[in-house]
Amino acid sequence: MRQSTDKKGVDQAVAVLVQHGIRQVVCSPGSRNAPLVLAIRSHPSLEVEVIVDERVAAFTALGKAIHSGKACVLCCTSGSAVVNYYPAIVEAYYQRVPLVVLTADRPADRIDQQEGQSIRQKDIFADHILSQCSIDEKELSEEALEGLSASIHQTESIGGPVHWNAPLSEPLYGTSEQEDVGVQIISSKPNDPSIPWMELRESWSAAERVLLICGQDTEREASGEKRDLLQQWTERFPQLSVWYETISNTEFEAGMSCIDRFIIPMSTEQKEGFRPDLLLSLGGEWVSRKVKKWLRSYPEVDHWHIDRYRHPDLLRRSFREIHAKPHEFLQQGLKHLVPVKKEASYAAKVRELAVRRNERHDRFTQDSPWSDLRLFTILNQRLPQKGVLFNGNSSVVRYTQLFRWSSELFHLANRGVSGIDGVTSTAIGYARRSSESVFLITGDLAFFYDSNAFWQNDLPDNLKILIVNNGGGGIFRIIEGPDASGWFEPHFEQAHQRSANGLANMYGLQYFCAAAEAELNNCLQDWLSSKGLALLEVFTPREQNDIVLDDYFNYLRYGRS
User: Domain spanning 197-349 has what CATH number?
Assistant: First the structure.
């Protein structure tokens, strides 16, 4: 028997979570959720963290779930607290991260009656969750318990958030002895993927140029096997070229990384010369807008996408989906697909241009002026070769893609929605669960936007954060359109002169800064070797960064005369 809330239905719901092996809970303070808290605290196997800011709490839970691959539970009071979960919920939905969102609510007859902290919570996340359940505070029926179990199975097998809403009447703080309920745990054995090899072989045998692009993949346990299999594919199939981005965690010798530095400098004629006859894609999100635009111009190219989850219409045309884990598909493909003898090797043609691009990249970056690009050149050379690199969104993740990184550096990013909110909180949640060194590179606006991330106890001491402070919204200087709008400032770039030093002092964080290459070289090692969570703020020239980047791509395209 356990001393828990006297609302039996709530206790039963939490017991179902425990029976499914869920162990991580992030709560935010409140009153309406008192029965939920009492039930959660009655289970010593649950690891509970309390974070005041619900938006921070939700992204922290997201980071924990990304690390473990198991659902993390979010628990909050009713009203506006619930709405603050939404940014992380949509990120979890599109990044396919398991979350159980457990929210307190007022009884249905008290909604819209000017009761404090009451809103229409039913269906509030309907468009961005896998399923939703209502928890009756009275004893739950067997059918209701099975429904809760089914929703946990959903979030962990499909990937994404589920919502449990609990309308609770007063009094809220009563307790009684409760015993654990027995519920049939829903589980399933992994099915062997059914792959239409006969149809794929028809496209494969007719194709002289097969392009395989690897998208975001956070499944770490399978990443090494995937790299080995891709290496075998490239050795066996000369008509195949494999392209990947850093967040695919697919770094291997024969692959073509740094897609943007390959595609952006291409002439129209060159792009036509590299047009594939067959396109295969693995995993999730692609960062490169340029490769999407290029491939969208060839709607006749047969496209097959392989992932264990449903995938969006990335290229805005029909495509075939194969629901399998990428490494399983690659493993079977070695048996079902055969090399196609062609006069010229597509892969060799890609490698030839990639080598020239790499040589010019090295020449330009070795003596490029102080800028965002120069900063990332130094980081690429001096960051540790092992650990986790969490990429901020906007310009940060795009600069990271221009460099080849160690295969032992695991890359993460919130590329489900690709927003700047919650980047620091997610990295903190991940680092708290990890025993490795975790490095977050984030932009200034994203850092300040999520500054409440540090308003929690026991910040992870294995996390180092680098802030690229380019004076605000640097991404809008390097994409087409904003500068020609007539309203570049303040609607697109929000220029500022703020520093993170004050925030570091407020939260008692170690702080380092640099505004030039020499200063960075002097403090970089001190930042890396410092004990505990530390910030390194690097100031780069706001009005020069885009010029240097344009010069870089022009040099890749033409070279120096």
Answer: 3.40.50.1220
Residues 456, 135: Cα–Cα separation, whole Å: 29
Rounded to two decimals, the pTM is: 0.93
d(CA 231, CA 251): 10
Q: Respond yes or no on whether the N-terminal peptide bond of residue 339 is cis (omega within 30° of 0).
A: no
With helix as H, strand as E and coil as C, how does 194-235 read? CCCHHHHHHHHHHCCCEEEEECCCCCHHHHHHHHHHHHHHHH
- Residue 396: pLDDT band with limits 50, 70, 90: very high
Please give the mean pLDDT across all residues of the chain.
Answer: 91
pLDDT digit string, tens, across residues 111-157: 667 676 777 898 999 999 999 999 999 999 999 999 999 999 999 98
CATH superfamily for domain 367-558: Thiamin diphosphate (ThDP)-binding fold, Pyr/PP domains (3.40.50.970)
Task: Work out the average pLDDT over 66-95.
Answer: 96
Query: Which distant-in-sequence residues (6+ apart) come within 8 Å of 287 by Cβ?
Result: 245, 247, 397, 398, 401, 415
* Three-state SS at 130: coil
Token digits for 378? 């130094």
Rounded Cα–Cα distance for residues 234 and 246 (Å): 19
Buried b (16+ CB within 10 A) or exposed e, 51-80: bebbbbbbbbbbbbbbbbeebbbbbbbbbe
Taking only the tens place, the pLDDT of each residue in 147-162 is 999 999 999 988 999 9
Alpha helices in 367-499 (DSSP H): 372-382, 395-400, 423-433, 444-449, 475-478
pLDDT digits (tens, 9 = 90+) for 20-37: 999 999 999 999 999 999
Report the CATH fold assignment for 2-170: Rossmann fold (3.40.50)
Alpha-helix residue ranges (DSSP H) falling in 473-544: 475-478, 501-507, 517-529
Tokens at 531, concatenated:
């004990």
Helices and strands (H and E) in the chain: how many: 21, 19
- DSSP symbols for 377-410: HHHHHHS-SSEEEEEPTTHHHHHHTTS---TTEE
Task: Indicate whether 339 pLDDT > 50.
Answer: yes
Mean pLDDT of 429-453: 96
CA 315, distance to chain mean position in Å, is 20
Neighbours of 419 (CB within 10 A): 17
What mean pLDDT comes out for the span 360-370? 96
From CA 512, how far away is CA 331, in angstroms rounded? Answer: 47
Distance, in Å, from the CA atom of 68 to the CA atom of 518, rounded to the nearest integer, reads 39
Dihedral, CA atoms, 505, 452, 47, 178, nearest 10 degrees?
130
Q: Which residue has the tokens 């008290």?
A: 110
Query: What is the layout of strands, in order, in the sheet containing 24-27?
Result: 47-50, 24-27, 72-76, 99-105, 161-167, 132-134
> What pLDDT is recorded for position 60?
98
Q: Where are the domains of the chain?
A: 2-170, 197-349, 367-558
Is residue 221 within 8 Å of residue 362, measured between CB atoms? no
